[in-house]
């Protein structure tokens, strides 16, 4: 079941087309669900939580994909011992090629992690991480598709400049990134090794790499990840002042 404000009727219509029951009442969704996904912008988290808290039970699991909102923030808005998972997905999930990271809250039970892993894996790669890694994940894979779209656009523009048709340039650029990514994943080689393997002495690739190095491509990408990671934090803090997150060594409640 899915809920959304009346202003988002188009979204609910798309859900109905998939055979999903819809409503305007968030509480109704909770009362009819074992796993509740909260997919709203950070400023709306408090309002949604206030609507579902009265009917949220301990047997239920809440999965939040709200940018920058910590697990402890959400736990503070729900009944005591509520089970909360924080997720950062990305848009390639719509074509089954997403990259998602998730962190589990202190009240989560055995099996919650495996359940979320299974759900997220239906739309791509999924991995559990400590919560302190979620903001960096946001800067890397969460925002990463937009960086790669810019790379594809730039490569395609280069192809057009050198005389290739636009449509062909875009397809070649996209397939090049797809193939390069598959090599990294399938061959289990460091990207630097694969890069060096392409560069023949005095060949065209090393000339191209020289231009990228002069332009500071890697430094620009590092800065982009850093900026987006920090933006995740500040966006969440603006909506709900950040409560502390567990450190890497802090263990889940109830574990020895």
TrEMBL record:
Q: Where is this region: Disordered?
A: 231-256
- List, in alphabetical order, the Gene Ontology terms for molecular function in this entry: pyrroline-5-carboxylate reductase activity
Reactions accelerated catalytically: L-proline + NAD(+) = (S)-1-pyrroline-5-carboxylate + NADH + 2 H(+); L-proline + NADP(+) = (S)-1-pyrroline-5-carboxylate + NADPH + 2 H(+)
Pyrroline-5-carboxylate reductase catalytic N-terminal domain ranges (all copies)? 9-67
**Does this entry carry the keyword Cytoplasm?**
yes
Q: Which family does it belong to?
A: Belongs to the pyrroline-5-carboxylate reductase family.
Protein name per UniProt: Pyrroline-5-carboxylate reductase
Source organism of this protein record: Steinernema glaseri
């Amino acid at each position: 079941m899915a809920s959304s404000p009346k202003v988002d009727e188009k979204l609910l219509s798309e859900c109905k087309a998939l055979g999903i029951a819809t409503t305007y009442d968030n509480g109704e969704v909770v009362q009819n669900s074992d796993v509740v996904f909260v997919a709203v912008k950070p400023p709306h988290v408090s309002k949604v939580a206030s609507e579902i808290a009265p009917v949220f039970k301990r047997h239920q699991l809440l999965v939040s994909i709200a940018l920058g909102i910590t697990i402890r923030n959400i736990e503070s808005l729900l009944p005591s011992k509520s089970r909360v998972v924080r997720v950062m997905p990305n848009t390639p999930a719509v074509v089954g090629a997403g990259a998602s990271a998730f962190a589990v809250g202190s009240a989560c039970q055995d099996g919650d992690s495996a359940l979320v892993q299974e759900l997220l894996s239906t739309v791509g790669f999924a991995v559990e991480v400590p919560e302190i890694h979620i903001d960096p994940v946001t800067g890397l894979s969460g925002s990463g598709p937009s960086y790669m779209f810019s790379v594809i656009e730039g490569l395609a523009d280069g192809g057009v400049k050198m005389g290739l048709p636009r449509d062909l340039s875009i397809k070649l650029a996209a397939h090049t990134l797809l193939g390069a990514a598959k090599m990294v994943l399938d061959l289990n080689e460091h990207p630097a090794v694969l890069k060096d393997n392409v560069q023949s002495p005095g060949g065209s690739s090393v000339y191209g790499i020289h231009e990228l190095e002069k332009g500071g491509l890697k430094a620009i990408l590092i800065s982009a990840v850093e900026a987006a990671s920090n933006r995740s934090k500040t966006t969440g803090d603006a909506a709900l002042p950040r409560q502390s997150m567990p450190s890497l060594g802090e263990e889940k409640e109830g574990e020895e």
